[in-house]
């Protein structure tokens, strides 16, 4: 399983509403994510709207493509798009900045055994 971390910028004035929406994600969206290979998926928000996402998947591109083929994802992305800054016409799930992993404790520990 591969680990992925990404950044997005939520409009600070919409952050409270964004959090509310994520407190009750549509059940069909949750199931589509699971069926598409998104696991251990979390979002973290800073007060200024910086959003950090973490997800595990065998292949993030394949998981994104699987989600893109679902009707529920299209509806969700259409509704969520207005919350973000800097997407340049892309949907939130295609417009995030993927970060490079530079350290993982268990990987390092595995080298010493």
- Percent of residues in beta strands: 25-35%
Distance between the termini: 21 Å
Order of helices and strands: EHHEEHHEEH
Shape: globular
Mean pLDDT score? 95
Radius of gyration: 15 Å
Query: What percent of residues adopt helix (DSSP H or I)?
Result: 25-40%
What's the number of structural domains?
1
Report the total helices. Answer: 5
Organism: Kineosporia mesophila
Pfam families: rhaM
Protein name: L-rhamnose mutarotase
What does this protein look like?
Strands 1, 2, 3, 4 and 5 form a five-stranded antiparallel β-sheet that branches. This protein has 113 residues and is of the alpha+beta class. The chain is built from five helices and five strands. This is L-rhamnose mutarotase.
Please sum up the structure shown.
This protein is of the alpha+beta class. The protein has 5 helices and 5 strands. A hairpin with a 4-residue loop joins strand 2 (39-45) and strand 3 (50-57).
What brief labels describe this structure?
113 residues, alpha+beta, Alpha-Beta Plaits, 5-stranded antiparallel beta sheet, 5 strands, globular
